[in-house]
Fold this sequence. Notes:
The chain has helices spanning 17-27, 34-49, 55-63, 71-86, 92-104, 116-125, 155-164, 185-188, 201-210, and strands at 3-6, 107-115, 130-139, 142-148, 175-179, 193-197, 214-216, 221-222. By secondary structure, it is of the alpha/beta class. Strand 5, helix 8 (185-188) and strand 6 form a beta-alpha-beta unit. Helix 1 packs antiparallel against helix 2 and helix 2 packs antiparallel against helix 3 (55-63). The longest helix has 16 residues, at 34-49.
Amino acid sequence: xxxxxxxxxxxxxxxxxxxxxxxxxxxxxxxxxxxxxxxxxxxxxxxxxxxxxxxxxxxxxxxxxxxxxxxxxxxxxxxxxxxxxxxxxxxxxxxxxxxxxxxxxxxxxxxxxxxxxxxxxxxxxxxxxxxxxxxxxxxxxxxxxxxxxxxxxxxxxxxxxxxxxxxxxxxxxxxxxxxxxxxxxxxxxxxxxxxxxxxxxxxxxxxxxxxxxxxxxxxxxxx
Length: 223
């Protein structure tokens, strides 16, 4: 069985699920100081675009509104968020690509630098087999506001994926990985079939030099 790996944000969906969730939390009164929260979130996302985000800082900020809330409470809100916000942003090309891989018998997996409380239910909604995301700590089914484990960010995606695969790196040679971000270059460089989707400027330059396929999901065109 081959692996078909997908980044989530700006790859399968038009937008970043963490930023969209941050706005959703503000809209529903989960954030005590919305202006300061959204300003700091925007600053950190700007760092992400430049490849210099401190992911621990970002997760600390965006998990703070969940602290003390039950898993059930958050799950119900995430369900609404997916139906209202994420569903209309899913690229038709992404759905078609996932369906093609499933028809071939490939194992599909989202590998994302967003929190698992968002990524796992989105993966289920997309009928993707598995999801790897940043671990979010629970204590007796109550969110603590902390992360756990190796973060699936930059090189951490490779580390977590290899742990999931029993440290058998040879499996990656039979894998495809679809991503938009230069931050995913560590994993793109490890798989047999790197696929670049709606790339940022730095990844576009690298992909062209490497001769990787470049897809334009959402407009149906390809470089």
